[in-house]
Amino acid sequence: MIAGVATPLLAAISSTLRLTIEGAEYWDAAVGAGRPPIIAFWHGRILGGIHYFRGRGIVVMTSRNFDGEWIARIIQRFGFGTARGSTSRGAARALVQMRQDLREGRAVAFALDGPRGPARVAQPGAAWLAGATGSPLLPFHVEANRFWTLRSWDRTQIPKPFAMLAVTIGKPMTVASTDARDVEAACTALEDRLRDLEKRAAVMLS
Fold first, then answer.
1. What is the DSSP code (8-state) at residue 160?
2. Tally of structural domains, the chain
3. 164-169 sheet: strands from edge to edge
4. Which residues contact 88 (CB under 8 A, 6 or more apart)?
5. Are 143 and 166 in contact (CB under 8 A)?
6. What is the CATH classification number for the domain harbouring 12?
7. Contact 170, 138 (CB under 8 A)
8. What are 116-136's pLDDT values in tens digits?
9. pLDDT (0 to 100) of residue 7
10. How many angstroms from the chain centroid is the CA of residue 85?
């Protein structure tokens, strides 16, 4: 029911949104080079991300809990694939699927701090997958100038009709291996880059 109601509402809002974009060339370069990226973003910005990346066949990791189920059903209707798993349940199976998706030329995406936080703290899945496959991590942030905020752990941002979205995509980064030190360093770097992207998005909207 949630997906059935939310999908047309989101589609209606999306049709009114305006975009200003910085860093789109990083996505284009990765795809053009035949190296589908691993998109990394914060859970609270998933709705803005749906609008920008819709229809590209990107495979998104979604959790197996109730929230993950309705999110999966919504994003599938916007042209995304799903890999069901999270840090607490089904992670290994989802990572195996995403590894295969990358081999077959499909980009994948992670809400780094999902499914239940803590907010703005990167979990290791995306960095580990980058180290295992050699695919580049592509940090991404989107910010709206007018929005509602849910009272959830991630403070999900829902853009209001006719809002402007500032999309910032950072330089791709690689992870040398799946060694715990490399993965931890990559998570720290991702957190830093996403903070910078959020600041840049705020400037774009000012």
1. P
2. 1
3. 18-22, 164-169, 137-144, 38-41, 108-111, 59-62, 81-84
4. 63, 115, 116
5. yes
6. 3.40.1130.10
7. yes
8. 889 999 999 999 999 999 999
9. 87
10. 15
Distances, alpha carbon 141 to alpha carbons 78, 97, 180, 194, in Å:
19, 25, 26, 7
What pTM did the predictor assign? 0.92
In a domain, 179, yes or no: yes
Token pair belonging to 202: 């705020």
Give, in degrees to the nearest 5, the angle at Cα 110 between 204 and 188: 75
Q: Which residue has the tokens 């047309």?
A: 8
Max CA-CA distance within the chain?
Answer: 45
> Would residue 206 count as lying in a domain?
no
Of the chain, the end-to-end C-alpha distance in Å amounts to 37
pLDDT for the residue numbered 86: 67
Give the Cα-Cα-Cα angle 174, 175, 178 (nearest 5 degrees). Answer: 155
Nearest-angstrom CA–CA distance, 24 and 203: 17
User: Which tokens belong to 67?
Assistant: 């929230």
Whether 124 is in a domain gets the answer yes
Instruction: Tell me what the mean pLDDT of segment 87-102 comes to.
Output: 84
Q: Which of 174, 142, 146, 156 is nearest to 22 (CA)?
A: 142
Tokens of 94: 């989802």
Q: Which of 25, 17, 77 is nearest to 48 (CA)?
A: 17
Residue 42: strand, helix, or coil: coil
Q: Residue 93: which domain range? A: 2-201
Is 33 within a domain?
A: yes
Sign of CA dihedral 191, 196, 197, 201: positive
Distance of CA 203 to the CA centre of its chain: 21
